Amino acid sequence: MARPRKRRRVCSMPNFKMFGPLNNSLDEKESIILTIDEYETIRLIDWEGLEQEQCAERMDVARSTIQRVYSEAKKKVADSIVNGKILRIEGGDYILCNMENKKCPSCGKGYHRHGRNKQF
């Protein structure tokens, strides 16, 4: 029996969920799906400048998992840019930070950072 997949911790949902070329001649069937956890990996490594080890700690998974997720996410973003495909951010195996204490247990940031997001 395979080990159950561990859900990745995500601190916030993306504000924008669809990207693509300005001409609307493309069919949405040609779109690429970037999962929420792949988005969070790109956000933490490329936007916040964290190392893969730090990203893994924040998302509560192994560094090797982050390396694999990050590699797959970069390929999807590159495919979207190079081939002019629509990139949609949705789905994935993730859990949102628990904000009951008004402080994220993963990143330590306060409610102002996460307040606009719905919590499960």
UniProtKB/TrEMBL annotation:
InterPro entries: RNA_pol_sigma_r3/r4-like (IPR013324), UPF0251 (IPR002852). Belongs to the UPF0251 family. This is UPF0251 protein NSA23_04155. It comes from Anaerosalibacter massiliensis. The lineage of its organism: Bacteria, Bacillati, Bacillota, Tissierellia, Tissierellales.
